Amino acid sequence: MEYNNLIQVSQYFKDEKTCKEHLAKLRWSGNVTCPFCNHDKVYVTKAGYKCANPKCYKKFTATVGTFFENTKISLRKWFLAIYIMTSHKKGISSLQLSKDIGVTQKTAWFMAHRIREMLRAKNPTMLRGIIEADETYIGGKNKNRHWDKKVKGNQGRSLKDKSVVIGLYQRNGMIISKPIENTTTKIIPQAIKENVKKGSHLITDELSAYVMFDGNYKHSIIKHAQGEYANGKIHTNTIEGFWSLLKRGIIGIYHQVSEKHLEKYCNEFNFRYNTKDFNEQNRFDKSITQCTGRLKYNELIAE
């Protein structure tokens, strides 16, 4: 059965047994492996599995070692939440998610952050070829603030009340966006070297930090200050289109995000953009394959 809409998802994952079987299938591709010792021979039990390794012999289920481990929320609700978050182009608020799946807002907030961490690229590959690079600023504007909450000297690229996010887009490929400390000639080149293969063709605007390279990249500049936004294939329009999605999601759905959790929101938008050519079912299944890991509540709220 296909599940490319919310009704089909609800019908397909009709009980916990179906959810666990689907999780095990996607997690292990039919070859169940012990999450404690990675032994590839296990016994099937009534409650789940048992490792056949004499030095281990531990019992486990498909949720052990994943973001679902020890959860008191049913897998049905988890799967519905994942489907909703991965299919809504601009995201969904924790308040609306709580109403949709029948949990408290606090629980939905925690679930949403776990899902965002799950959507993080676990083994990101280096971008190559033609790369559009740009940065954007996330934060409020003084004109929208009450008079006693305005911040002096926050114009332009000031980071007094804004966070900066760098974006790297490989033409006809993947996008990477993540917060960085600032836009200096030290931070931006370092972010590019960590994510873009040497010999690639970078396309940027006139920001001086993009010019400070050691010749390992071909570099083309689009001069926005002179009213130039495209010169044949030389443009940054695609990454700027991604910024519109990110900002519309933050302004229209989340309203504001803290600097502490900004990277998780970038993970969410990166994943949806990088799977934009997937159908809903394949995008959902892709997210489930990335479920290994843990994020505890105390870790999430820690200063």
List keywords for this structure.
303 residues, alpha/beta, Nucleotidyltransferase, domain 5, five-stranded mixed beta sheet, 8 strands, 36% helix
Helix-strand layout with pairing:
Elements: H1 6-12, H2 16-28, E1 42-44, E2 49-51, E3 59-60, H3 75-87, H4 94-101, H5 105-118, E4 130-139, E5 162-170, E6 175-180, H6 187-195, E7 201-204, E8 218-221, H7 237-254, H8 262-274, H9 280-288, H10 297-301
Parallel strand pairs: 4-7, 7-8
Antiparallel strand pairs: 1-2, 2-3, 4-5, 5-6
Helix pairs in contact: 3-5, 3-9, 4-5, 5-8
Compressed to H and E, one letter per element, the order equals HHEEEHHHEEEHEEHHHH
Could you give the order of strands across the largest sheet?
6-5-4-7-8
From the alpha carbons, calculate the radius of gyration and give it in angstroms: 22 Å
% residues in beta strands? 5-15%
Number of helices: 10
Outline type: globular
Oligomeric state, counting identical vs distinct chains: single chain
Chain-averaged pLDDT: 91
| CATH first level of one domain | Alpha Beta
Helix content: 25-40%
Q: Compute the number of strand runs.
A: 8
CATH fold-level topology of one domain: Nucleotidyltransferase, domain 5
Question: Which residues sit in consecutive blocks of at least 5 with pLDDT less than 50?
Answer: none
Largest sheet report: 5 strands, mixed
The CATH architecture of one domain can be named as 2-Layer Sandwich
> How far apart, in Å, are the first and last alpha carbons?
45 Å
Tell me the structural class: alpha/beta
